[in-house]
Amino acid sequence: MSTPRRWPFFLFLLVGIGAVMLMRGQREPPQQQPPSERAVAVRYIEVPQVTVAPMVSGYGVVRPVRVWEGVAQVKGQIVEKRPQLQRGAIIEPGELLLALDPTDYLLAIAKAEADLAATTAQLQELTVRQQDTGNALQVEQQVLALIERELERKRGLVGRGGVSTSDVENEERALLLQQQRLLGQQSTLNLLPTQRAVLEAQRERHQALLAAARRDLEHTRILMPFQGRIAQVHGELEQYVREGELLLVADDLAAAEIEVQLPLAHFAGLMRVTNSSPEALTAQVRLQESGLTVNWPARLVRISDTLDPQTRTVGVIVEVSEPYVGVSPGVRPPLLKGMFVAVELFAPPRPESLVLPRHAVVHNRVLVIDEEERLQQRSVEVLLAQPQFVVVGAGIAAGERVVVSDLIPAIAGMLLQPLADQSTRERLLEAATGTIPLQEVQSPDG
Fold this sequence. Notes:
By secondary structure, the protein is of the alpha+beta class. It has five helices and 23 strands.
């Protein structure tokens, strides 16, 4: 009874298996597609050849070239003070700042003048005495000659009447007395030059004391030596000051200077790439603050004598003349002491230089697009690294296409879809040939 019920099931199963096998036999096998290469889109610029204005920059603090300390050169009480003598005031040269009591120094001048007058009178008296002594000496010499002749006459008459031996002896005594008087006059005359030398030394001493007293009197008046700005004030009215005491400090407004620390390699590279000396460099000081940008022309005046062993930087000092000229409130401020400013040093232009954007050169290597639109990695020689670009000396030619976009991964020989980046090229040309926005200078290796 169960067998007739199973055979339809097996029949349907065999029919299904046969249909499946028939369908598999009639299906075509899948076709094989050759592998395809996808091009990667990149931005590029053609390497320009332009005249470059090489530059290095750094930052520093403004300071006056000359700082004057008004120190009391004499002692005394302050009896006069300029009303405008306050911190920050600008005072013209020759203006009186402080005055000390001059009484003691006027008395010293009067005493020195009196002593000088007395010594001068003594010298005049000595001159008269010297003339009188000289005249007296001539008279005594004439008297001596008369006595000598009389003595000779009497000696010739002794024993011939009228002249005795005692007369001759008396004449001899008169001769000796006259010779003694003559020696006294001569001795007095010989001492007069020594007395004159003493008096002349005294006169010079009194003249020196008078000059010192007059100079001390001048020092009681403290004048502004130049056009300057008052930085400190320590002297007040009725204050007694001692010699050597600091009374005020003023900054010269004629010039300001800024010292910046520049990497030695960058500064030396600036010299090397232009074959120029530091005297050939031009400088510019720039203030950028709160949307305000102000420039001052400057000049390189000296290079520091030491090299920082840790940062490998050298100090370069530039000077700005007349930092207060052309001041306009809200538009052009003066170059004040303590301002934090940027300093740019420019070398003479370098013609026919190959330049690339700074970010396109990594570890002295660039990515180049060849004629088959494939990627090449090229080593280049970097002559000078600037804030926004580098000057290339070898390894690439003008007009070649250099990748300026990030390409990760960068595989040599990969197929590229190049797109010209005109805006990057325009910024590069502006930076290389014109004004370069200030950024901190870094090495081309990043």
